[in-house]
Every structure is written in C-alpha cells, then in structure tokens.
Write a structure and sequence with these properties.
Number of strands: 3
Strand order of the largest sheet: 2-1-3
Structural class: alpha+beta
Shape: elongated
Order of helices and strands: EEEHH
Distance between the termini: 44 Å
Helix content: 40-55%
Radius of gyration: 14 Å
C-alpha cells in the first residue's frame, strides 16, 4: 500500500517518505488526504484548543 506524506517545508505531497522526517507529516492513505494536511492539522488544533478550554470549567 502506498503511503503519502505532506512536506510542510515545501508544501508538496510526496509518494513515500522522500524528504527528511523533520520536514514531513504523515503518512496519509491518499494523495488527496496528504494535500489536505494543513487543513486537517488546523481542524485538530481547533478541536484540541476547545477541549483545553472546556477542561477549566
């Protein structure tokens, strides 16, 4: 099964781990999912921030 990675340094999607581990995020199951990585991470960050805010209640 092919794994896809998002290189956050270049903004490129990579098939297989091609760049330094510190420059890429993944793996993702599809090229499309890897391309959405910044959006996915933003959604997760908002969710975690909301959870953290609710812990103080």
């Amino acid at each position: 099964m092919t794994e896809w990675w998002y290189n956050h340094k270049t903004g490129e999607v990579e098939e297989g781990p091609q760049s330094l581990g510190s420059d890429r995020d993944g793996p993702f199951t599809s090229k499309e999912e890897a391309a959405r990585a910044p959006e996915i991470f933003a959604e997760r960050s908002r969710k975690w921030a909301a959870e953290d805010a609710n812990e103080g209640d």
